[in-house]
Structures are given as structure tokens and as C-alpha cells.
Write a structure and sequence with these properties.
19 helices; 6-stranded mixed β-sheet; 644 residues; alpha+beta; 5-stranded antiparallel β-sheet
Amino acid sequence: MRLGSLLLLQQDSLRPRASHDDTPHAGRNHARRLQVISQLASTATVVALWPHVEQPFHLTVWWLAMTLVLALLQGAYRPLRTHTARSEDAALHHYFSSASVIASGAAWGSLALAGPYHASPQSQAIVFMVLGGVTLTGAGTLQHSRSTTVAFIAACLLPLFILSVASPPPAMREAGLWLVAVALFAFGLHVLQHGHDAGPDSQPKTDDLPPEPRQTLLDNASAALVLSRGHRVDLCNRRFAEIMHCSEHEIAGLRLARVFENRVDWRRHARAAANAIRRGDTYHGSIRLQRRDGSVFSAEVTGQAVDGTETPPRIVWVAFDITDKIDATSREELHGAQLQALVCKSADWYWQTDSQHRLMHVSRHADIPHDDTLEHSLGRKWWQFHRSGREPSGQAALREAFENGKGFRNLTVELSNGQHGPRWLLLSGMPRLNEHGAFLGHHGTANDITEQVRGSERVRHLAYHDALTGLPNRRLLTDRLNQAIARAQRYHERVGVILVDLDDFRRINDLGGHPAGDRALLETADLLRNCVRSSDSVARLGSDEFVVLLTELEHSTSAEQVAAKIMTALLASHATHKPISASIGVAVFPEDAGSADGLIEVADARMYRAKRRGGQHIESRERATTIPGPAQQPAFSGADAAPR
């Protein structure tokens, strides 16, 4: 509709019909012919001047420079011609073509500076004839604007004019005046040629469509159409007069500024439209227009020049009354604001993703302390938030739920939260679709369940760990021991179990009370953890019983060496006050037992045997060992360096 209205308002079809020479192939052939002719002319000029100059080197340099300029212009013109044929960017082609013409003129004008002017009268005459001929030929064949032609003439003749004024030729003192005359004649030739090209023969027929049907089509158009020249209205159709609540005759000749709500909007839109039309683009904008009765309405306006060469240009304006659309949008914005206010009162996050499942919007309850974990991660996908290395199946479930494009609920995602520990969110969402049913993304809510998850983890931790020391209890120890035995059976390794029972622990409670006993147990737990590797485990079975699980042992004696190291560390750590000794039993898989319960029973029996021997004793399968006090040298002093 808009394109048809634009063609009708052009009335006489000011743009000429396309000819065969307007095709990209014809343009390339024309440019190639000009290059060949210019190259031949420059070569003939060098041949003619060669016998009359004393330093032909300068002439050779000029010829090479001329050849290079022509080649560069032709090479740059080829892709530009293809691009402009594809995108119809006439402004870009015009600017480049004008620059090429000026560059060619400057290249020819530099001939006067190459040395022939001062060589001899014969060379001066040749230079005058060559540059005069080039100027007249270019002015007669160029199809550019008058400003481009003037620039070409000046580039060709200005250096020679300066030399002729500064140092007139002996045979022709008025050479400068003759050059001015040649320039004026060349410009007049271009004006005559340009007027001929723009004559009536090049214009299309104007009687293809009678005025009455054409005006009928314009008046029956649903869009408001206006043709303006400069800042005044030339004519309009009936639809524009209707939405302005006046007659067509009242609008004709009216200044465009009069139909705007205020002068500030007029200046802003006029400036933007002028810039767009100057670039050869179409102007689009939403403006506020004022009717003759003072009422104001919103309009969507499109403007395009009928002929970009006219000054001032004639512009076709296509306008639509979008007041109802603006009102509907305002109502939607009001509903959206109310929904947003309701969402902000919720304790949950409201989120939106785009069609690529990237998080684009997050809102949050204003009363909850600000947490920018999600705000700083906009643009990422929900399954990329999931902490790496934690429950890969959960990450896969998140990705599958989003990529299916369907609704989902109660999916858990674990987020990194800096130094505050992880944060858990419970996601529920549904797809967003446009009016055509196309998928736009998901939106939904995210409920913070961090406290619930942490509470569940605390309960689980208490179920598998000792409340005082935080060490694994019997249940978790049995599970780890079974896993270690299964690995040892597969890789033919050994597993060691060391059962440590503190001697006379009741005496510590009787003398210092339960706080002293708790401190002793905590110190013992820390000491045992420091005596083993990170891959080993330390557990608490009873009030004063600890178990050390050693995995991936190479020799059965390695467990005995670790037991001696533990005994020595216990005695050394308590040497500043009353020392604590321990009775230790050692059992090794598979030599002593083939199951987890069997290993613990063997180690427990050997621990009681060591206690019956008087305490501060290590019982193992190979031998029984008594560890001396802290003032003496401990047995198995090489335990730290022993292979594990």
C-alpha cells in the first residue's frame, strides 16, 4: 500500500526508466573503457613529451603513478558496483564515483608539476593541449553533479594555472586567462550536456494514468498521504484531511510545523528526517500531531524523497493514526506495571528467558536483602548456573526441561554464592508464545529453598556423623569400608583398620569434668586427622573409641607403622599436662578378615587384648608392641617415611 501510494504521488514519474546501461555489467564495461582510454592517453602524452624534457625520470614516475591510480580506482569500483547493485545504496555509489572523478582529475593535473612545463616551449604547448583536451573531454562525458564537474576541472587545470600565472610562457603571456576561458567553456559544455540528458525525451510518459483515476486511488487509500516541498504541504489525499478534521484546500500550502504539537518536536523530527533523506534512506518516526481544533493524536509517519536531486526535495509522507494502538499499549503497560507490583510482593524470583533459553530478566521482592547472584549472570542459561561437579543428572534434567519447550515445575538448581556457600532454587516455568504461536522463551518463578536444603543436609549430617567431633559415625564408616574393600578386591590392594581406645578416659572426666573430656576428644580427633592422608578416614564409634580407615595399602606392615605414628603423636601432644595413652588394635584386609564387620571385630578384639596388657600398647597380626613414653625414643620411628 505504501509503495503504491508513493508511486502515485510521484505523478509524472520523475525517475527515468532503467536502460541497458544501468545494469552492473554495463557499468563495469563503461569504467573499463574509461580506464583503457585514460591509460592510452597518458602513454601517448609521455611519448610526446619524452624528446623535449631533460629529466625523463620525473615523467616516468608520473606515468607509473597515473597507472597505479587508475588500477586502484578500477579495483575498488568493481566490488562497490556489485554491492550497490545488490543493496541499492545510491548515495554510497555517488560519493565514491565523485571521489574517483576528482582523483582522476588531480592525477592529470599533476602532469604540470612533473617537469615538462619548464623544459621547453614545445613541452609547454603539449601540456596545455593535453590538459585542455582532458578537461573538455571529461566535462562533456561526466554524468555527475555540477559540483563534482567543477572539482574535476579545477583539479585538472589549477596546477597549470598557478604555473602560468607565476611564470607565463614567452609565446603566450595571457595563458592564465586562456585557461580560465577553457574552464568556463568546459563547465558550459557540461551544463548543456546535462540539460540534454534530463530533457523530455528521457522522461517517461505522463499520460499513462489519467488524473481522475489517480486522485480516486489516492483518496480511497487507507493511509494518510502528503506531498511536501521544503517545509510546506503541496497536496494531500482525503484521508489526511479527515484525520486533521479539515478540508484538503485548508491544508494545501500549510507549513508542516503547524501540524505538530509543539515547535520542539517539529525541530527534532525535521532534523532527523532531513538527515535520513540526505543519506537516501527512508525516515520512520512516531510523532504527535495537532488538529485545527486543538486536539492532539499520535501518528506513525514514513517519509521518502521523490527525487533526491531536487532542491528543495519533494517528499512523500505516509501517516497512520495510531492513537488506539497507543491507548492499547498504555493499557498493557498499566496491566504489566500492576503485575510487576504484585510480583514484587512475592518472596520468589520472577524470571524470563529468550528463545535461546538465556536468562534475560529477573525481578525480586524489595523487602528481601538484595542478592545479585542472578542479576550478574544475565545472558546465561539456567543449566549453566548449576554448580559444576554437583549432580550432573540434575544439570541434564534442567537442560532437557528447557529445550523441550514445555512447562515444568519443581526443578532444583544449585547456584554458587561466593563466600556464603551454595544457594538452592526451585524452578517452575512455562513457555511464552507470540500471537502466531512462535516460541519466545520461558518464564516462571524461582523459590529460594536454601534453608530447607541446608536443614535437610544438617539432619543427614547428624545421621552419619558424630555430633561432638564431626567425624563419621559407625554407619558412614561401614559404608566407606565396604567401598574400600570392593576397590581393594578389584586392584589387589590392602585395607587397614586401626581401632584406638583412650586409656583411663573416665579419669579425665572425673578430674576435669565433661568439658575437659570433650576437649580431649576434640584434640584427639584433630590429631588423628593430621596423622593420616586425605584419602583415609577417621571415625568415632563410642565415647572414647576411634577408628582409622587406611585405603590403598601396599604392605600389611604399613598399618602398624601408622598405628605407631598415632601412638607417638598422642603421647607427644599431651606431654605438657598429664599424658593420655591409648590401646590400639590393627586389622588388615585380606589377611585378617574379608568383610567390613570382620575387620572391625578383629581390630576390636586386638584393642581389648592391648588394654589387658596394661594399655599404651599396639596389637596386630604380626606382633604386639609397647610404645615408650614421650621422653624415650618411640618404636617404629621410621613410620613417617614408610611406604603406604
